[in-house]
Each structure stands twice: as structure tokens, then as C-alpha cells.
Specification:
This is Pantoate--beta-alanine ligase. By secondary structure, the chain is of the alpha/beta class. It has 2 domains: about 1-170, Rossmann fold, CATH 3.40.50; about 185-270, 2-Layer Sandwich (Pantoate--beta-alanine Ligase, Chain: A,domain 2), CATH 3.30.1300. The chain has 9 helices and 9 strands. The strands form 2 sheets. The chain has a 6-stranded parallel beta sheet, sandwiched between helices. It has a 3-stranded antiparallel beta sheet with strand order 7-8-9. The radius of gyration is 19 Å and the shape is globular. Residues about 215-220 have low confidence and may be disordered.
């Protein structure tokens, strides 16, 4: 497994691969867990070579968010990736990705108007910019993302389509703990009491899904009584994440939720 810290070093390693090779990219911010490993395993199944980026992207954090505290577990991450047979790891610094003269960004129109975008102004600009840069550096044929970040998945699919980026996007289902809590690097912020409370998140979503499947109704009100104090509940289109007042029984929708448990912000979603 090669660990490459600069754009030039990665590009040199990329050029050494066979020209016809199917290369899968798994973009991460580190703090790896079984959810990330499910992405790596999918890439390993479908691709000749697997690259993983480990980069805590400052552009997608707001001024009052946890950029400086975000878990950085390089040694443990590399051990996990080695076990999965990853071929290339791109581990750049912030200075390598964003020079002092960096001036160009990818602005995804309309995403700041989504409920997640309203709560995290500039977040999707940061995501779109860094993923575009990673695609340019890595030149993957395939890239893999988790369904847990549903709005991010919609954004990246839109960006790849609109900008004619020749990358096939794979979406991997959410990996959950035994009690339903979606795996997240930020779960380690939770103390035992908060961790127990957080399990309510998936139960509320599952209740809404069950209600919809039985009654074919708008599931938004179904989780109100189940939830912790919430930042938002959104019933949105699977294609755009824009909110819908009624759920079409053919097209379905995604219920997405964000809550604050202690100092930890958690997101989750479920498909109707």
C-alpha cells in the first residue's frame, strides 16, 4: 500500500497503473470505521485498484464547527486500509490542497437552500470543491459514497452530470449499530447517556417508514413524538432533496433528520 502526500506523488503512482485499469476512489476524512470499510469493500469488489483519500477538508466546516477537534487517527486508519488491501492512499495536507493563492471554487446552485445547507452555510461549496479536486488528482473511474450523507450523494451525482466528469458514482447503504444508530466518526463524541439517547434517531425514522408503507401517508409528523430535540426533519425528493409536501407512492422520498445530542451533531435518513 502506497501512502502519498502530494499531488505530484499521487499522479506519478496513478500513471504507473495500467491504462485500462478500473480505479475506485473512496473519499474520507479519516476517523475510519466499519461504515467506511463497507465503501472500501465495495470498491475492492468492483475495481482493479482501490484508492482512499484521507483529508479533513477545512472548507466544509463552518466557523463554529469541529474542524480542529475532528478525530485524526492516522495510524489506526492506515492499519484498517492495509487489512482491506487498499492500493493507494492520498493523504495531503490542507496546504497541499489549498495554496495561499487558491481562488477557484465549485458553487453548487440551490444546495444552500436545502435544510442541511441552511444549517451549514458553505458546507456544500466545500464538499463540491474538494471532491472535484480529488477527482482531478486521482482520476478514478469509479467513486463510492455512503447513503448516510444523502444530500452529499445528490450533490455529487448532479455535479458529475453537469460538469461531464467521467466517474461512475456508487452509493453504499448505511451501516448501523445493533440498535440502529448510523455509524459516524462523530459518534465517539457521545458519552454513554448521550449514546443511549441517540438510538432514538433511527427508531423514529423506522416508525415513519413503517407508517408510510402501511398507510401511504406523509411520514413527517410520525417522528415528532419519537425524536430528541431536532435541528430539522425533512421529507425530500430522492433526486434533488428538495422538500415535498406529499410523498408519491411510486417515486417515494427520503426522510432526513439532524439532531444535536450533547455536543455531537448527528444526521440520518431513511428511504420511503
Amino acid at each position: 500500500m502506497q501512502i502519498l502526500e502530494t499531488v505530484d506523488a499521487f499522479r506519478q503512482a496513478r500513471r504507473a497503473l495500467p491504462s485500462h485499469a478500473i480505479l475506485g476512489l473512496v473519499p474520507t476524512m479519516g476517523g475510519l470505521h466499519d461504515g467506511h470499510m463497507s465503501l472500501v469493500k465495495q470498491a475492492r469488489r468492483l475495481c482493479d485498484f482501490v484508492a482512499v483519500s484521507v483529508f479533513v477538508n477545512p472548507m466544509q466546516f463552518g466557523p463554529n464547527e469541529d474542524y480542529t477537534k475532528y478525530p485524526r487517527t492516522f495510524k489506526e486508519d492506515m492499519s484498517l486500509l492495509q487489512q482491506q488491501g487498499v492500493d493507494l492512499v492520498f493523504f495531503p495536507s490542507a496546504e497541499e490542497m489549498y495554496s495561499p493563492n487558491h481562488r477557484c471554487y465549485v458553487e453548487p446552485e440551490g444546495f444552500d437552500d436545502l435544510v442541511e445547507g441552511q444549517c451549514r452555510k458553505g458546507h456544500f461549496r466545500g464538499v463540491a470543491t474538494v471532491v472535484t479536486k480529488l477527482f482531478n488528482v486521482v482520476q478514478p473511474t469509479h467513486a463510492f459514497f455512503g447513503q448516510k450523507d444523502a444530500a452529499q450523494v445528490v450533490l455529487i451525482k448532479r455535479m458529475v452530470s453537469d460538469l461531464n466528469i467521467p466517474v461512475e458514482i456508487g452509493v453504499v447503504p448505511i451501516v448501523r449499530e445493533a440498535d440502529g444508530l448510523a455509524l459516524s466518526t462523530r459518534n465517539q463524541y457521545l458519552n454513554p447517556v448521550e449514546r443511549e439517547a441517540a438510538s432514538v434517531l433511527h427508531r423514529g425514522l423506522a416508525y415513519a417508514q413503517n407508517l408510510f408503507q402501511k398507510a401511504k401517508k406523509d411520514g413527517k409528523t410520525a417522528i415528532d413524538a419519537e425524536m430528541l430535540p431536532i435541528e430539522y426533519v425533512s421529507v425530500g425528493s430522492k433526486e434533488t432533496m428538495q422538500e415535498v409536501s406529499k410523498v408519491d407512492t411510486v417515486d417515494g422520498a427520503i426522510i432526513s433528520v439532524a439532531v444535536k445530542v450533547g455536543k455531537c451533531r448527528l444526521i440520518d435518513n431513511i428511504v420511503l
